[in-house]
Amino acid sequence: MANHGAIAYAADADKAVELSLPLEWACAVYWRASAIGTPRVLDTDQRDAVIAAAVERSYGTTKPVKSQNREQAEEDR
User: Fold this and answer.
1) How many other C-beta atoms lie within 10 A of the C-beta of residue 24?
2) DSSP secondary-structure letter at 66?
3) Rounded-to-integer distance, Cα 18 and Cα 75, Å
4) Global pTM?
5) Is the Cβ–Cβ distance between 47 and 59 less than 8 Å?
6) For residues 20 and 16, what is the distance between their CA atoms, to the nearest angstrom?
C-alpha cells in the first residue's frame, strides 16, 4: 500500500478536507526538505511544541490575530 496517500475521516466531507490540509502541508514541507538533504525528524516533545505554537497563533487560518497574540509575537522577535 505504499504511496497510496492518506485517508481523513470526519462527520462530513468539509471537515475531512479540513483535517487533511495540515497533513498535506507537512508532507509538502518534508518533500521540499528532502530535496536538499535528509530532514531531521522532530521527537514527540518537539512536535507537540510546534503544534501548540501553531494552534496558539492560529497559524494557517484566516481568522484575525488577537491584539494580545500580535503583541506577544512582536516581543518574541
Assistant:
1) 13
2) P
3) 31
4) 0.53
5) no
6) 6
Instruction: Tell me the pLDDT tens digit for each residue of 35-63.
Output: 999 998 899 999 999 889 988 887 767 66
CA–CA–CA angle 58, 11, 19 (5° rounding) = 35
CB proximity list for 6: less than 8 A, separation 6 or greater: 20, 23
Nearest-angstrom CA–CA distance, 69 and 51: 16
**All 3 cell numbers of residue 58?**
492560529
C-alpha cell at 50: 510546534
Residue 22: which of 71, 61, 68 has the closest Cα?
61
Domain locations in the chain as residue ranges:
1-41, 42-77
Is the distance from CB of 73 to CB of 54 less than 8 angstroms?
A: no
